[in-house]
Amino acid sequence: MRSSLLIVSAMVVLSGCTLPWSSSTVQKPIEYPSTQSGSPAASFCTSKGGVVSIEKNPTIPTMDLIYCTVWGKKIDAWQYMGEQTSQTGATQSAL
User: Fold this and answer.
1) In what helix (H) or strand (E) does residue 75 lie, and over which residues does it extend?
2) Could you tell me if residue 80 is inside a domain?
């Protein structure tokens, strides 16, 4: 009798729970560009007047490296973007 009451109580409590996969709204996955020229780092570089160059990684042939040439200086595009923005995304002063 006691175990039946416990099972019924558990079923009542769990029936009020919603499962994350039972939601009717399905979020679309983020789509990233298929080429590195469309990456956020490349876009940031060009928005700041830089020139993007993409090179094959000599140690990992399937991986491309993105460089930004700005003010005559060639730098990794992701590094440049990181140096020029704060954690909030606000642009900082010049290099």
Assistant:
1) strand 73-76
2) yes
